[in-house]
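WARN retry 2 of 3 for item q-0093 after timeout on previous attempt; input resubmitted unchanged.
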Amino acid sequence: MKKIKEKLIHKAKLKQQYAKLKARQEDEPRKSVYDRAAEASDAAGDDDDDEPAEPVPEPSLEPHPDRLKMLEEKSPEPTPAERRQRRPQTQPFRKEGEVAKKKREEAEARQRAREQAEKERASKLAERERFRKTMAKARGGPNGKRKLGREGTVLLAKAQRIMGKT
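OK item q-0093 returned
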């Protein structure tokens, strides 16, 4: 409660001060920027009668004489011996970066090996399933007789696979 009261009193005082300043400014005639600058220079003690001490040269497109001299002088090209050799930038965590890179490469190799093993497993499973279906077709027909032609190709492929491994 006390804080609110103090804030209200403070705001009222500020409004009063602002109103006084505003009234004072309205009483004084407005001066231009140039008049105020002239007053400031007079107050500083500069009585130049609005003329500069040195005459200002007319602007031209020609370069300054000092600049012309600098352009005419040829700067000596630094020889390779004088030219500073750049040192390689220091890498604060180079060793850690190398270790991390090595770990990343090992993890990628393990992932590739895992994927390769999964592919082999899937292909073997698919081949076993094909073999089982073919043998099931070869064993059972409409009258229950074995179909030796179908069974023979499957068994031949199996034998070739076994012989190829050993």
